[in-house]
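README, section 4: Worked example with a bound small molecule

Sections 1 through 3 covered apo chains. Here we extend the same pipeline to holo records, where the ligand is supplied as SMILES alongside the sequence. The molecule in this example is zinc ion. Nothing else about the input changes; the structure line simply encodes the ligand pose together with the chain.
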Amino acid sequence: MPIYEYFCDKCDKKFEMLVMGKETPVCPECGTENIKRLMSACGFISKGSGGETVGASAGSSGCGTCSSTSCSTCGV
Ligand SMILES: [Zn+2]
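The generated complex, written as structure tokens:
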């Protein structure tokens, strides 16, 4: 499934969005289109454990500098 992670500049929030075809996703909080798509690398990691507390203790290399709740270095 094409689930992508996005980051809203306005809300300063990260969220996941299912995107079909050429749909332009908007922020679920404020509705802006001014959002950035993040790489899916961290997306599939968080999908495994259902959200927030991923492998902080596992010390996995994920995307290198992924923390449990943010991944600004992964996709931006
Ligand atoms: Zn927003």
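What to look for in the output: The chain has a mean pLDDT of 71. The CA atoms of residues 4 and 17 lie 5 Å apart.

Section 5 describes how to batch many such records.
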